[in-house]
Amino acid sequence: MAWAQVCASCCRQLAEAVLPTATGVETEERTLLLGPASARQSPGPLIPGVPGTPNPGFSCPSNGFTSSDPLSEGYRKEGLSTGSSSTWGPGATAASWPTAVLLADLEQDARQGECALPRAVPAGLAPLKPEASRSSSPGPTSCMGASVVAEVGPRDTTSAGPEPETWLPRCHGSPETPEPRRGQPPTAPELPSVMLLNGDCPESLKREEGTAEPPRENGLDETEPGEETTGQEVIVIQDTGFSVKILAPGIEPFSLQVSPQEMVQEIHQVLMDREDTCHRTCFSLHLDGNMLDHFSELRSVEGLQEGSVLRVVEEPYTVREARIHVRHVRDLLKSLDPSDAFNGVDCNSLSFLSVFTDGDLGDSGKRKKGLEMDPIDCTPPEYILPGSRERPLCPLQPQNRDWKPLQCLKVLTMSGWNPPPGNRKMHGDLMYLFVITAEDRQVSITASTRGFYLNQSTAYHFNPKPASPRFLSHSLVELLNQISPTFKKNFAVLQKKRVQRHPFERIATPFQVYSWTAPQAEHAMDCVRAEDAYTSRLGYEEHIPGQTRDWNEELQTTRELPRKNLPERLLRERAIFKVHSDFTAAATRGAMAVIDGNVMAINPSEETKMQMFIWNNIFFSLGFDVRDHYKDFGGDVAAYVAPTNDLNGVRTYNAVDVEGLYTLGTVVVDYRGYRVTAQSIIPGILERDQEQSVIYGSIDFGKTVVSHPRYLELLERTSRPLKILRHRVLNDRDEEVELCSSVECKGIIGNDGRHYILDLLRTFPPDLNFLPVPGEGLPEECTRAGFPRAHRHKLCCLRQELVDAFVEHRYLLFMKLAALQLMQQKASKLESPTSLENGGLPSPESKPEDPPGPEAGSEEEGSNASGLAKVKELAETIASDDGTDPRSREVIRNACKAVGSISNTAFDVRFNPDIFSPGVRFPESCQEEVRDQKQLLKDAAAFLLSCQIPGLVKDCTDHVVLPMDGATLAEVMRQRGINMRYLGKVLDLVLRSPARDQLDHIYKIGIGELITRSAKHIFKTYLQGVELSGLSAAISHFLNCFLSSYPNPVAHLPADELVSKKRNRRRRNRPPGAADNTAWAVMTPQELWKNICQEAKNYFDFSLECETVDQAVETYGLQKITLLREISLKTGIQILLKEYSFDSRHKPAFTEEDVLNIFPVVKHVNPKASDAFHFFQSGQAKVQQGFLKEGCELINEALNLFNNVYGAMHVEICACLRLLARLHYIMGDYAEALSNQQKAVLMSERVMGIEHPNTIQEYMHLALYCFASSQLSTALNLLYRARYLTLLVFGEDHPEMALLDNNIGLVLHGVMECDLSLRFLENALAVSTKYHGPKSLKVALSHHLVARVYESKAEFRSALQHEKEGYTIYKTQLGEDHEKTKESSEYLKCLTQQAVALQRTMNEIYRNGSSANIPPLKFTAPSMASVLEQLNVINGILFIPLSQKDLENLKAEVARRHQLQEASKNREKAEEPMVTEPEPVGAPEDVASQPPAAKDPSSPSFQG
Asked: Beta strand 442-448 with 429-437: parallel, antiparallel or unpaired?
């Protein structure tokens, strides 16, 4: 029921429901709009489940997730329309907000984005386009050069109407784009041109159809006419839910809303979660006396209809069912206990929102409505006030009232008398339990086939006869209710509380999130946990009795599922995601067991470093250089980085998703200083020698190389999206061998007949800046920066994002080179452009189905239009030219040669990943090609230094990206294709930047990241020498040396009397590489910091000027608490939640008791939901055209699809919810905005972490919507929480802090706490001035806000002074006639009058003394509306009033353009882009928040 209910269906909506639209747009408008029912009420799911039986391909019940998490009724109440964002993650781009509606939103959402944890760009995506991105154009589908053809596809039997086709052709290999930021280009969707030219497009389309056409030879091939739309129909299921009556023993009958697509099993889940039926697990449902099959869909059950009665019938227990029942009861007893979240088990994680909102916002909203101005306590704790130096740690995890768990039982555990002896088995005994009740009564319980009863056994005496009272109960809970009054009372209260919690606080996350701090918890007895530990949960854990899971088979079978239409694709993506998350969890558990020494090696006689392990059908190997495999590449260092490179390769090939090519499930786990690679096992690989099995590639780095036609054919299909060149190499017998990947990539055909590729560590070309090659010089940009530098290993690769950006850059160059010459020829021929025939070669730029005009943003209107038209005309010329004119062919050939294209007739840049590989030789005939490829690699290395790094620094200066901690900075770098090893270079450039002050935050984050990464490298080797018994002592000693001011901390070795006397015999099963040494104990702070500085110099080429932690803090303005958080997150340390005195010189900050745990740091593949992503994009496009309602419905639909694939919890769902909340807020539906944003906050806390920068953003949005709903004290609490987290994560001096403090100041001003308000507003003013310059519009706005508070305090002189400053800025920046300048001047007049009036009154008092006749002074509190208006302005939300008439005109205009464009597809391209939205009304944020292109119209832009 869970998912079905979650994915409420997309109902068909007929034309009437659409806003009146002009004929031109009708077909599109209608295709995908949902029924008026929003996701909350809509009855049923979109996907028909698998009829009948569970899908044999993978072993989760066919509804994917339900078996593991009993969600349910809670969902229904919540109307769980959770869903996810475009994979762009939280921040929407500039290009994605309608100028009219959310102008300054750009700013805000951009920020949002930076803090999010976006995904890496995967294969098959067009690269970023630096210039294009800058436009803040509100183009609807500016992203795609293709329109929508409302084509009715073949009907699915289930569908009750035509299937409108989805909005965007699936032109990019995968939806996994990084989240575009304002001013940072959105990926693929923006730029079809290169996609097709570089061939990404046809492949992904072919994938959609599932056909295997031969790959296209050159990039400009014509796409088949129907190609865009194949496989794209959305199947809309007329799906009306209905209600059934449930009769369960012992409670009143109740009715339940169900949907025909649900499985019977989902009703089970609901009943197991409902407060009154939660204690039952072993039952079946009967309709008219017939038992319903667990896995059948409700619609296939005969006679089931509205009002049918389903009877709950208790079934006899088996051992398995009895265990499941005990486990379920234990889960119910622990349902409010956070210990699983602190311990990082079972995908539990923390959430603290309810502490700050006092429960659910929805209800409190109704309660608090009337009390708008009741006095509320606004004073924040001292440490939150501006200027406070203390950074306490304890408030990070406030104690939740519900956590003091109500004790129902003292002990519930398996009895020592298990298993029952034979004679008792034959009486039906299944197992025995031992219980101590809260009243201290000790009882033994028998679980039998008929239920549970008390027996007469004691701890030392076995007597299985029933004891009195002779009460047999089918449920353990009912039995305990009988024997313990305390249990009965507390259990009822506990269940009430459990059901009241927001479902998002209890649903499991898809991947485990660990907490780096935890409070001291007492260790309680827990039978299930103990049993899990002993049985290592292999066997029955996965609910498949008697077998472990065949991971490889599951992973590959899910990939083979059909994907022709939407339901099939959703089912396939859901299966892939589910298996991946299960595999990741199992691999993580296995890797920890391997390092902890709990798994037997498969080669136990070898040295520990070389051992390999198999556990639960997963193969584990350690990151050491076994048998000198990586001798030429850097030995152990290379062996350590190879697994992550390999994982990136797997991620990339998975994203391209070519049918017939298989990769291994791969997870890389760093734990206790070791790196473990976990892989699924190719069937048959263990029986054969590697030499025999490899039929493609090389096992010795290129000495012996083999190839295979089938592999070439499969890899050829990935070569375009991955920009890999098909090339020839020589083997040891000097024979030429053709490859379409690097030589290390091995092809093995498994016993299952599938073609696997593995060892993808060199999927991408080498990074020459870190690979000195004798006799090869680098371009001047590189040598100037001190490159090439020898790195510790030779596996440095360029990132995929960089390759894409470089190719994109080359494409622009290619267009510019060809443009002028072609234009001249064209002018001389004076011929009008011919329209495209089918045989032509349209480049995507000029595809007949170009999106309608509105794409081009308003600000491109002027000079930019001509540049845009030029490029379009050029593309069109190339396209219409059928190749007969030798002059234009010559032009193209020259341009191709100049940019290094491998084809003479089209732009096609690819890389040969084997260039500069030690040991790889190329045939003589290819020398020229090799020379070109070498040059291309040098150019790419130079491009990284000359374009990408300066581009990053510029974006940081313009606050286009706003990282807040190390992880978000790393993300921003990776999105631009900059590897972390360039961090030193980025910091050098920041130091030399003219805007050094505005980059202060970047510099601090960068230095902190550099220090903690260097410390992590040292910590890794430090930990490898530590025995398990000394682990907490070693970690606390390291932290003392790293962070404590105490000059000579002493390590506590394990107590001597416990140290074994027989130390001399070496034991075999020691963790890999560990000698019995205590070398770690002699480390001193001086030595550690010396090593850190040395490491920073060697690895990052950056000189740190500090010898101790205190110097570092002093010199670079860092915070010790921030460094502690960063190092803990990077290494997996969990420390005790308490206040640490880092600066004490008398005792060390950490003791061994402060180190609670060490967690694994896990890297894995993130499978994506592609269809949901397209819906999300279409929704954004609608919003940009001003169709907020339709956009909202599409995004709701995306939400349902995301839920369908990911389940209820996912980073992308979080972003989707945020956008929905924003839209509802703009449309004035505050309650809905509040509800969606609450889910977004909960989800961000659960899946990203409670203090992740993204969570801080979510808190700020929620505070705004709370304020709008008149929940003032809640809004303040949320803002204070956000400020505390920001202080902890970074500190006070961050541009984001200005926004936060403005928000807090405004809310405080609203409740007339003027003095407090001023402290925050003046801090915001100072921070804005520093980061945006004293003349920026943000600063003007800040001055105005401060002036308003002074006015409220009747301090008119100060108010005038601040408003004058603001006025001056407006006048110089915007001119006398701008609205803002006029507003400011009006306000100045008003203040002057008030000041004069006050002065008169004062004079009167002086003259007449106390008898003066004084009119009472009015201190007016600002109205809530005016405060809200200011809040909207600073948070970047602008409402532009449009009358209905304006809207109609706007739509008519859109329609007219559309028809025009249809009529003259080619000529329209040269027209100047139209303006969809009215010109922005300059809000103070306006100019500041428009991306650079808005102010500089000359920058070329590729919208449209």
From this structure: antiparallel
